[in-house]
Structures are given as structure tokens and as C-alpha cells.
Amino acid sequence: MTRILLAEDEQAMREYLARALERSGYDVVAVDRGTAAAPLLEQEHFDLLLTDIVMPEMDGIELARHCNRVSPGTEVIFITGFSGVALRASASMPSAKILSKPFHLKDLVLEVERLFSKESFGELK
Q: pTM value?
């Protein structure tokens, strides 16, 4: 089962995203800040880090860089409501996907499915 680490400081959004992903068959661990997510990346395996960019203590960009160091096989998707922040994230992590708020849950699930179907297709070659 695909494991997703969700880091989102806004409680309603975190619960909403976690519920939608779990209903789509993903195993989701949700935390409220980057500093809570960082040690989990070191201790457990996650296929995807889904992180808000703007968070207290450790922002999503710092978290994604940490993820690349400790778990380089983990994919990253950023979520943000700020276009300027999205540009900074894109420059820092060109391989990461960025979803801008507001987005429909269906779009998030499709993006995650697309990410992992591409990987499994690549393994079949």
C-alpha cells in the first residue's frame, strides 16, 4: 500500500486531505508541522511527502530538502495558496509537483494516482 506523509498546519485542511486520500486507498500519516514530519521521514518509509509550503517552525521547502537527504526515493508534492511561494518551491525542487490552493480533492487524488501509476509503469519495462 502506498504510504503518504501529509504535513499541513491547518487542521481542517489536514483532516480533509487525509480523509480523501484514505478513501482512495492510501495509508496516510498526517502531522501539523514540518518539525513533526522530519523525524518520521528518518524512522519510517513513505512513498510520498505531501506538504504545505508555508508552515511554522520548518517550512515545506526545508522539509522537502530534508526528505531528499534522508529518504531520496520519496516523491514530493507541495501544496500552497501563494503563487510567489510556489515559484520559490519550483526553483528549489524542480522535480516536485505543486498544487495551488484552492484545488479540488479529485485533482489531488488524480495527481497522486498519476505519480504512482507512472512509477509502476516504469517498473514493468
A: 0.88
Q: What is the per-residue pLDDT across 21-71, written as a single tens digit (0 to 9) for each?
A: 999 999 999 999 999 999 999 999 999 999 999 999 999 999 999 999 999
Q: How far apart are CA 92 and CA 82, in angstroms?
A: 15
- For residue 49, the cross-strand partners are 5, 76
Measured CA distances, 40 to 90, 91, 106, 109, 124 (Å): 24, 25, 27, 23, 30
Type and span of the H or E element at 64:
helix 60-70
Position 9, amino acid: D
User: CB of 58 within 8 A of CB of 33?
Assistant: yes
* Residue 70 CB coordination number (10 Å): 13
